[in-house]
Fold:
Amino acid sequence: MIYLDTTSACRSALNTGVRRMQRFLHERLRGRSDYCPVLWQTVLKRYCHVSLEDLKLLEDSQEAKPMGMARYDSFLPGLITDLLELMRRKHGTLGWPGSIKEGDIILVPDLIWDNRASFFQKQFPAGAKKIGILHDVIPLVRPGQSLIDAALCAHEVRSLAHFDGVICISKSVRDDLLKCWRDMGIHPVPTRVIPWPLPFSGNRPDKGKEEAKPLLLYVARLQKRKNHLSLLKACKMLWDQGHEFRLQLIGCKSYPMDTARVIREIRSLQHADYDLDWSVHVSEAELLTSYRDAAFTVYPSQAEGFGLPILESLWHGKPVLCCAEGSVEEAVSGGGCLIVDGSDAGSLAVGIEKLLDRSFRKVFSEEARDRHFRTWEDYWREFEAFIADVRG
Structure:
């Protein structure tokens, strides 16, 4: 059997990178007779079968409208859900480790910052194979991040050393993981870099119509390292100088304190009639429309495991204004990106002003359209090859 940990995608309709990856893998596997999606129940400390309600979020999340705590991408909503659903989930537990057999495999494309880590270290039986997909270890390698995140991320890194293999979504992520293992005195397990493909199919869209009032798009959760505050300050500087453009933010909430600061600034600018819109969650179709309508996108995040919105923008032929540190440097190599210091509002303002010039922007648009991108088929071939290697 092949078991896929779909916990995050079953708990929330939010379209974060982790959840999109889980939904893709489920889509590729669900036609197989030896496949079973599973979900971790934190309170029961057990894996469970997914219910029909879970499948709705896993397979058809586009029409969902997250409200309240569901708008936050953090561990707390999941814990609350597990507490509320404790009795119902008891009847759907898988009975592991007893029922899992030698040769079975579990794929874990999720953060294992909870008590799953202890389960994999102490209870998962020998013979069955565990493959993790690591998105980043930013809380451990970047100063100034959350101390709670750093502790939980360290928990995950130690747990992954008990896996049979780890897929890293960028070279930078693998380098960071290996360094963390060295620093912790941990012997590494097999790793392979398999970058994300583009989550789109079919032909790339046409250039689209140039709007008189350009649209700037930023797709990222409201988190400190994403530098929304610097971006908003830069945009206000340009608006006050008389530049005309629209700013669209798409991204869920993160930790309450970080998110509250950004939302206060958004509301303040909206109240002052600056042309700014923010959406917590959009459907895949709405996301495609936003990319299509954008003149260019901005991505001032200081640290990423991959930087998927950069490649999504370039696939649409839209230039990107961004930093180029760590794994983002891998994404931007090839053209179509204007590099700035994302933490400095002045640097962002200069970059935005340049790209607002249509003739300047055209050069980067042509570079973007000349780029080639990995497909899901490319990804799946490498993914299956790694699984075969781990199975031996």
